[in-house]
Structure formats: structure tokens, C-alpha cells
Specification:
The structure holds two protein chains of two kinds.
Chain A lengths: L3 H9 L4 H22 L9 H11 L10 H20 L14 H22 L3 H32 L4 H10 L3 H4 L1 H14 L11 H4 L9 H26 L12 H29 L5 H30 L3
Helix pairs in contact in A: 2-11, 2-12, 3-11, 4-5, 4-11, 5-6, 6-9, 6-13, 7-11, 9-11, 11-12
Chain B lengths: L2 E6 L11 E7 L2 E8 L7 H6 L3 H9 L6 H16 L5 H29 L3 H22 L8 E2 L2 E2 L5 H27 L1 H7 L7 H6 L4 H6 L6 H4 L20 H24 L17 E9 L2 E9 L5 E7 L1 H13 L7 H7 L4 H4 L21 E3 L2 H8 L2
Parallel strand pairs in B: 3-9
Antiparallel strand pairs in B: 1-2, 2-3, 4-5, 6-7, 7-8
Classes of the chains: A mainly alpha, B alpha+beta.
Amino acid sequence: MTDPVLILLYIFVFPGFFFLFAYALFLSYLDRKIAARMQQRVGPPFWQPFADFIKMLGKEVINPDGVDVKVFDAIPLVALAAVMTAFIYVPVIGLSPVAFSGDLVVVLYLMTLPTLALFLLGWLSRNIFSAIGGIRAVTQLFIYEVPFFLALLTPAVMAGSWSISEIVVWQQHNLWLVFLQPIGFVVALIGLQAKLERTPFDIPEAETEIVAGPWTELTGRRLALMHLTSEVSLVTGSALIAALFLGGPLLPWTLSPVWLNVAAGFGLFLAKTLAVLLILSSITVATGRLRIDQLNDIGWKYIASVALVQVGIVLVINYLWVTP
Amino acid sequence: MPEVVVPIGPQHPALKEPVNFRVIADGEKIVRLELDLSYNHRGIEKAAEQRNFIRILPLLERVCGICSHSHSTVFAKGIEEIMGIEIPPRARYIRTIIAELERMHSHLLWLGVAAHEIGFNTLFMWTWRDREAVQDTLEEMSGNRVHYNMNEIGGVRCDLTPVQVEAALARLPNLEERIKKYMDMVNSEETLLIRFRGVGRMSKAEALKFGAVGPTARASGVDYDARRDDPYLAYAEVPWNVVTDNQGDVYGRTRVRVGELWESIQIIRFCLENLPAGPVRTDAPKNAPKGEIFSRYEAPRGELAHYIRTNGTDKAERVDIRSPTLANWTSVAMCLINQNLADLPVIVAAIDPCVSCTCRMVVVNQKGSTNKTNSPDTGVAVRDLGSRLSRRRP
């Protein structure tokens, strides 16, 4: 796939922005529906996230007094652009055509941007709830980011490559990394949950304490775009974990017609991201919110140490296996 | 970080009713709390003085949306004592059944709210679903889900048919099972323990000093329950236990309330199975003789007191309502100091505050240091709308 038209189609239509947009809203629906059924509620209809998105786009945009409107408008766009760009490097149907060696680092960096965007929004909102929420978002970032990065870099260490696609290929020839690095997989899931600010890590937007945290002053299309950002982050994050730990969209063998191979890969991608989503939704339903000081304790004492242990194990395995 | 003022209320997602806290926080630690009560002052006491005894009960029921039966029962009980009439045993039992059903739906609601305050929405959804069974029973018995209007001076408005009794008894086993489940969850669910244990701790001495009542006081080991210590209705004839706990924190208050849910079920079952036969009303005189009474009642949130003064007419000369939440506010303000900002909602929720019922006139002497609603060493300032209104009067 080196034809520029095909690459443009890949980026903008499938599995790029259009598909990503639809799939993000679908996952959001599924997430809400799963949670609702577990809580013995009915849950939203299928089109609800899409209807919400359209409705919010059409709503009035309110500018709080003294807020820099241009920056306020730009931040949600930057955050959305960052996570959408990150998705292009994650394998969906076969390997990504724009993959390069080192794209894992780029994806991790791009996925951090929404949190920073939230902090900036909170700080710029000139609202006490937003400011506290923004500070909490960044405090939380410092807690979960280290174990999350460590957990996602261990596959790279084991596969000997900083490219997501090459890690997927390595898994095709060897074994899914979830079996080789179960600890890393668990830490990565916890980190992703924290990155997406879902319960028990919804500290920055704790409704009952600080209204909506950094989201408090967001209205209209800014709110719509930030919601879309977190939904796209959910897709990108679960796709990343599916690629790094669950073997991504590659089968261990090649099917004869090319389209069948691609379709099977896409099916695998759907199945694996939905599995990750199911785990994340279950965590959301089963827990309440932690306090920021409790998260600090748990994050640094246990999650970070466990992630380090995983790195150590991987280094030992590499030494025993790879070095002749 | 320097001290910041976090305004909580009058409109805020953590609050179900309007009250205003100004929380002065140092980073995430609460330094001080300023309470602004009586945002929603409704003048119920004055309105009560202008209605005769038949029309006053529906009014008093509307003091509170949750403990509506409590307010009408405590008034009816007091005025019947002044009139010197005794209600039939069947009416006493029916009042007890409604009172305990009310306690159950109140505590189930509270458990859900407390879980919601810590972001644990699953428990919130579950308890509110189970609460529907209690609400359905109440609706079957009285025709209403919230304001049952069961009381009349001299008895209850309507009788229970055998079908209603059967239907109510049939719902109890399932509720019992659910409450057992909640008991397990409260004692073993990590996500609840981590947010409830050691939060908002209050010793027995402090609970007594700040005049806490109800489950809030019982969670600190204060063994007092108006149902046992000043028995009324059928409570002296029913076997039941006062639930206390010595934890003194939000965890303890949760355990007390879940324990009381269990006791309520046993009381309801006993009353339904041993419902005496006979009439449900006696004729009450139109006028009450001159007199005064302090009527006490254990509402779901704690001890509720009505002071009633009559002057020989068909109206009360003065009705003074002391709702349990008013007694508990001071202890909340005390518990909050040095706690984490994130624990504020759950500590406030732990007394099960009922704000509109509490909005009374509070006279605060702002010039001197004496202050009738709180003691100065708690670091609380009660700035009260009612007091401002009263100062404006000639």
C-alpha cells in the first residue's frame, strides 16, 4: 500500500477518521449499555452518543468572563487531533501503512496530550472547580503515567523494536505478549483506565465534589469535541493494548484471498478492542472513586513497583532467551 | 497552595437540596466550613398555627418528602396526649408499619446517595431499585408513594385488608436477602471500605457534646433511640434491638443504617403477623384543652421533636419543629475540619441531611460571642437567612 490515494483513504476514511469517529461513538454506546445492564438499568439507545454529539455541536457556546477565547477554542481541537493521529499508527487491518520505527513513543506522547489539554482548560477557565480539577488531572497524570509507560514499553523491550507493527509481527511468530507479560497487561489496563479518567480514576471530574472539574466551563462544540476526544482515546487506547498484548489484527497464518485476510484481521481487531472495553467497563461498574492521596499511595507503592518488576522479568527472559 | 474558598451550594451536584457551604480549603485539606442554612425557609410553623387539627396533618407531612409520616405521627401523638385520647391498638400497629417502611425506604435511599457521593454508582442503582419494593408496599397500603397521609387525630385514615398484608409479607423475604447482600458489601467491599473507614470520625464524647442524634450518634456508640427510651406506638410490644456501632466514622454510620434496615424488616413482619383486630379510629374532640407537650419520635434521620402548645381552641398556638438534621449540622462542621476535600460530600451525606425540613429561624447574636446554634470552638460560623429576616423585623 504505497499508492498515495490509498494512504489518504486509509487516513481519512477507513480505518482512519470516518471509521474512527463511528467506532468511537459505538464503543461509547456499548460502554454505557454494558454499565447500565450491570447496574440493572435499561441504558441508552444505539444512536444516543451520536445524537448527543450533534446536539452539543448545535448548542450555544458560552465564553466565561476573561477567558482567552482563541486558546479555549483551540485546545479541544488539538486534543482531538492528537488522539486521532495516534490511531493511524495502531494496526487495524493488517499493519499500519504509515508505521515507522519508533511510532510507539509517538503514540504514547500523543495520548498524553488530552490530559494536558484538560489541565490547560481547567486552568484557563477562571473557575475554582475547573482549576482544582485541572490540578487533579495533572497530579493524576504524574501518578499513572510512569507505570503505564513502563507497562507499554516492556513489549517493545521483549520484541526488540519501538514500532507497534513490528511488535505485532513478533507476536505473530512467537506468542501473545499477554501470556508472557501478564503483570504488564494488568498494569497497562489500569493505566489506560486512569488515562481515560474513568472510575475509580475519575478524580479530576468528581461530580459530587467539583461539579465537572475542567469540563465545568465547556459548552457547545467545545464540550462535544472534548467528549469525542475521550471516546476516541478509548478506541485508541484499547486498540493499542490489543496490538501490544493481544497480538493485534494479525492471524498466525495467512489466508488465501487477500480480502479474506484483511476481513479476518479487522474482525480480530473488533473482537480484541471489545474485549478490552468489556474489562474497562467492568472496572468502572465494580468500583467507586479513589481519593487523590489514596491514588498516590496505590500508584507509586504498588502499581509502579509492579511495573518495574515486570521490566526486570522481561530483561531476565531476554537475557536467557535472546542472547545465545 | 494558598487557602481557597470552594463554594458548595446553594446549587451544586452534591446537594439534593439548597444549602450553602463555603469550604475554606488549603489545597485538598478542609480548614474551615461556613454554613449558610435556611436558604429555603418556608414558614411552615407559622402556617401550622393557622390550621385546625384536621388540616394541620397534611401540612406537617409536607415538612419533609422522606420522613413525611414521622412529622404527622409525632404531631398526632402529641396532640392525642393533650386531648387525653388513646388510639386503638390496630391503629398503633398500622402507624408502626408505615413508620418502619418509611425508615426502610429512607435508609435505602441514603445508602444509594452515600455510594453515589464516592462515585460508586452500581450500589446507588441497586439500592434504589430495591427501594421500589418498599415504595410499592406503601402505595398499596396508603395510595401514595411519598405523602401517605395515613394519620388522623385519633387513629389512621384507612385499614389494611388481608390482601395488602399478604402482599407486604410476600415482599419481605426478597428485601431481606438484598439487605443481607448490602451488609456483606458494606463490610467487605474494598471500594466502600477505602472511602468510608476513618472518614469523618467522631468520638462518643464529641457526639454527645455536639448533640448528634439518630444513626449519626449511634454510630459513635451513643446508645439512645427514642423508640426504646421513650416508647410510643407499638415499639414496646415488638421485639427489636437498637443498633449501635463504635466506629464513629462514615463506615460506622453505614453499618448502623444497614443494621436498622434489618431491624425494620423484623418489626414490620412482627406487626403484620400480629395485627390486632378492631377499629382503626376513635372519635377525637374538635378542640384540644389548654396545654403544652414535647413530643419525641425516632425519625429515620434521628430524634425528631415537636413542641406543641394549645390554648383550648381547634388550632395549635405554637408548633415548633426540631428536625434531626438541625441537631446534626454542628457535628458535620466539626467532623469536616482537617479532612480531605474529596471526603466532603460523603461526610455531609453521612448525617442524611434533609435541608428543607431544617430551615428554621435561628437567632444568632452576632454582636456578642454567644451563639445558640453552635459553639465557637468548632470553627463554624452559622450565617443564617432566618436570623437576617428576624433582625429586619421591628
